[in-house]
Every structure is written in C-alpha cells, then in structure tokens.
Design a protein that fits this description.
Shape: globular
Helix content: over 70%
Largest sheet: none
Number of domains: 1
Strand content: under 5%
InterPro entries: TspO/MBR-related_sf (IPR038330)
Structural class: mainly alpha
Protein name: TspO/MBR related protein
Keywords: Membrane, Transmembrane, Transmembrane helix
Distance between the termini: 32 Å
C-alpha cells in the first residue's frame, strides 16, 4: 500500500491500539531506562555488576562521556512515539511496519538496564543481543518503505540509525566485559590483539550497514556517526586513565574514521554523474 492510498484508508481499531500502546509504552520504557541508568540519583550502570561495565573495565570500554549519546537517542525515541501517534499517521504503512518493533527495542533496553543492575552479566549479553537483533529487523523494515515526510525521516531514520550504531558498539563492549568478569578475558589473544579485533568488528558492522542500506543514507549515515562516536571514545579512553593501550587506541581511531566515512562514501558513489 502506498502512502497516498494509506492516507485515504480509514484507520482500523488495530491502528488506534498500536498508536496508543506504542505512545504510552515508549514514555514508560524511556522513563524506566533513564531512571535505571542513574538519572534519578540511583546507581549508574557503570557502577553496577561490580563495575564490570565501567570505562576502565576492558580495553574496549568507551569513555564515560560516550554515553551522553543516550540523551539524543531517548529524545529521538520520544519524538518517534509522538509522531506515530498523530492522527494523520494511523495508516502510514511504514509506521505500521515498525511501530511494535520500535517499542520492543525500548522495552529490551529497559530490561537490559534492570538485568545489569541485578548483576546478571550473561543475562545482559542475551538481552543486548536480542536488542541488536530487533534493531536489525527494524532497520530492514525501514529500508523497504521510504518516508515521504521530513519529520518522519528524523523520527525514524535518524533515531533508529543512531540507536543501531550505538548498540552495535555497546554489544561488543558488553560481551568483552562479561568475558573479562568470568576470567575468560581475551580468549588467549592478549588484550591488545583482542581489543583491536573487536573495534575492527565494530567498524565492519558500519561498513556492512552502509552497503546493504545504500539506498537510504538518512538511515545509514546516522548508524556510522553513532558507531564512530562509540569507537572514538574507546580510543580516547585507551590514551588516558588506568587502562591505556596504544594498539587499541590506534585501532579504535582508524575504526571510528572508517565507520563514519564508509556510509558517506557509499552514498556519494551512488549519485549519478
């Protein structure tokens, strides 16, 4: 169904339920996640689970300022919740396709914070992998139905791109922290080599996303920016503090540049000459 056809189709009861539940659920999920992360003065995530996810827990832990990106992501998710609830968006095919999935990502994020606060690190790995999987499904669904409204593009493409890019890097850091906490550590490779492999994987994710989603730069470029942001703060963290590592710092810097530049280059390559 095209956007013009959807505009002339009366909303169904299911449409209205989806709009209401996604709006209310999103507000609750974002509030719970923010409070659980320490916004209300409680224990921040970096101090939970014995500090396993702190900025100096592993060589691929981003510096503390990196997590400020959540403010932007939360703002975008709240914008999405409001936009999808507007009367004229009830039958929008794109919002129909992703509404429940976006809500699912927010609920999983809140669950992840709760699991970490409880100290269940392996549980947190399972949840963040599920979150990443749901974000990937949402990414594919967004690609299939382009937006025709600038506001919707910001609320969906930009928000979900930043969300996916950041969670990709956060997943690598979460896995590394969990392995380290269980004394599995670097899988016999050594901290520097293990860290370099992980940050390279983070950059490759951004490259893969850029190529796969090359038809929609409004989605892939934010993915690269968020991944690059996280990787850059890994580089910064490895040049200062108690856990410095020159090899990882250099590798993370190169990975950050590649993550940001790849979607831009792929977009420019697609332009007609």
């Amino acid at each position: 169904m095209s956007t013009s056809e959807a505009a002339t189709t009366p909303p169904t009861a299911a449409d209205r339920v989806r709009q209401a539940v996604v709006l209310v659920g999103s507000l609750v999920a974002v509030a719970v996640a923010a409070l659980g992360a320490g916004a209300g003065g409680d224990q921040p995530v970096s101090e939970a689970a014995g500090g396993a996810l702190s900025a100096d827990a592993t060589v691929v832990a981003p510096g503390s300022p990196a997590f400020s990106i959540w403010s932007v992501i939360y703002a975008g998710l709240l914008l999405f919740a409001v936009v999808q609830a507007l009367p004229g968006r009830a039958t929008d095919p794109r919002l129909r396709a992703i509404g429940w999935w976006v809500l699912g990502t927010m609920l999983l994020n809140a669950v992840w914070i709760g699991v970490v606060q409880a100290g269940w690190l392996w549980g947190s790995v399972l949840v963040i992998v599920a979150l990443l999987a749901v974000l990937c499904v949402t990414f594919v669904r967004v690609l299939r139905i382009p937006s025709t409204r600038p506001l919707d593009t910001v609320a969906t493409d930009v928000t979900l791109g930043l969300y996916l890019g950041w969670v990709s890097v956060a997943t690598l850091a979460n896995v590394a922290a969990t392995l380290a906490a269980d004394d599995v550590g670097e899988l016999g490779l050594g901290e520097s080599v293990w860290g370099a492999i992980l940050v390279a994987a983070g950059a490759l994710v951004s490259v893969a996303v850029a190529v796969y989603g090359r038809s929609l730069p409004s989605l892939t470029i934010p993915v690269g920016l968020a991944a690059g942001w996280g990787l850059a703060w890994i580089a910064v963290a490895r040049t200062q503090g108690p856990l410095t590592d020159v090899v990882v710092a250099v590798a993370a810097t190169v990975a950050a540049v590649l993550a940001v530049v790849a979607p831009i280059l792929v977009t420019l390559a697609r332009r007609p000459r």
